[in-house]
């Protein structure tokens, strides 16, 4: 990885960790502790067995002399979380930190993609590096910050392709970029070797399910938008006993204020939004640079004529003819706002539009990581997210959603008329297909 890319991965302003890794190329200086809170060591530490450790006597001495973090009692942490009114406060803080770090890596890679003219994920290297790198960083942060037992991550990527002959070069690129991002952020003084990279990716092979806790991740949601230099998201959620209890969406290219045109760009102002929600605690948005969080809520429009709706940018991802029919039946006058990724959920949650429609082509199975984070951001902002029959989304069935036809989201006032329009449009489409 060249020095120009490393230079673009600027400081995150995140708390330092007291863990010191070393290699022939790694520094042996101990990073200071953040004064406000003591960081945690990964638990259990062998989750990253191939991270580099000090080998020389001087490195070993520096490692032994590193500042020691104070271990927080799980009981005390739970008490503090309850006192804050959020039983998942620690998990929320870790999730925000994880997606923010991953976003920095993705921003650097997207800049290179735009400058180099790459057009698809088939071009391999940069897009694939970002996908894997994002997943590795999220897994690392979650383990370092909140893992206190079995760690389960349901994620899009696994290491199968990277273990094949001919993948050595891209694996080296991933390793370099991940290590540079960690080092330049100042968040942890630890680095990976290649086997550790593969192991961290495979942390995401969990099947999820109705029991226990499972993190759910899409490391880059909206790949085509990412390649075009447009909208994408790093989407992370937490399932607890089959229910989504927490979600964060890092949207590096989404304006912090309202979207002002159909392509999701802004006439001005700050770009880079971080949406978050915890069950029972509402939804918020803040800048990726760390501005104070602001409470958000869905719009209060009750007349479909005044509504606008979001849908996928790519017609391959959603049936635009069907969504057009639904909008016509509702009387919606505004043209569709087409945006890649779960950034649509974030925009809907803060009232940029009134309706979100997603109707994939026949045979497509929805993955839980494509909707878990976004759906809780909308519902905690006062909205409703269901399938085309009006059923709540069920994330307890494993890696896929078992649902009726499509996904719709809106406010409580519009949902009855939206459901009727959806069901009428689907019925007409099916009748027309049966005549062919």
Automatic annotation (TrEMBL):
Binding site for Mg(2+) 1: 156, 218, 221, 370
Gene Ontology molecular functions: 3'(2'),5'-bisphosphate nucleotidase activity; metal ion binding
Enzyme class: hydrolase
Residues binding Mg(2+) 2, per UniProt: 220
PROSITE patterns, A to Z: IMP_1, IMP_2
This protein's record includes keyword Magnesium: yes
Biased composition (Low complexity): 52-66
Keywords per UniProt: Hydrolase, Magnesium, Metal-binding
SUPFAM superfamilies tied to this protein: Carbohydrate phosphatase (SSF56655)
Family recorded in the similarity comment: Belongs to the inositol monophosphatase superfamily.
Name by which UniProt lists this protein: 3'(2'),5'-bisphosphate nucleotidase
